[in-house]
Specification:
By secondary structure, the protein is of the alpha/beta class. Helix content is about 25%, strand content about 20%. It contains 2 helices and 3 strands, in the order E-E-H-E-H. Strands 1-2-3 form a 3-stranded parallel sheet. Strand 2, helix 1 and strand 3 form a beta-alpha-beta unit. The chain starts with 14 loop residues before the first strand and ends with a helix. About 10% of the residues are buried.
Length: about 70
């Protein structure tokens, strides 16, 4: 199921995709940060420490989701 919302703290999910880092600071197992002009300055190390994967498009997301499904 898919839920599109601005208030990401009102539900528990297995996967979360957002372009704003503060929306991903939670206990969701798989957090994907969609690259945007306002988050390009975040380092790979900073994202790794927060267990967040940067994605640059929907193809990146599909690859990650297919890999998760096949684990």
């Amino acid at each position: 199921k898919f839920i599109f919302t601005g208030a990401k703290n009102i539900f528990k999910a297995d996967i979360q995709i957002d372009d704003k880092l503060s929306h991903l600071e939670n206990d969701v197992p798989l957090k994907l940060l969609y690259t945007s002009y306002h988050n390009k300055m975040l380092s790979d190390q900073e994202l790794k420490e927060k267990n967040i994967i940067r994605v640059n498009g929907w193809n990146d997301i599909l690859k990650i989701l297919f890999n998760e499904k096949n684990k």
